[in-house]
Amino acid sequence: MERVELAVKGMHCENCVASVTQALKAINGVKLARVSLENEQADVTYDPSKTSLQALKDAVEAAGYQVAS
User: Fold this and answer.
1) Quick one: signal sequence residues (predicted)?
2) Is the whole-model pTM more than 0.90?
3) Which helix (H) or strand (E) holds 2?
4) According to the CATH classification, is domain 2-68 in 2.102.10.10?
């Protein structure tokens, strides 16, 4: 398992948090996704043999938010 913190921009409310959380949890290999509106951050634990960091970023962006590098 690997853990990564993604800086997520564009969230404004708890519905945004739910959207990002749902997008991340829908990825095969994601074991845990905690999203903080206050910190503008997603803390994700995932299996690198099943998914990639890029897939996590792509999912957040597909949900309509930006991942800061």
Assistant:
1) none
2) yes
3) strand 2-9
4) no
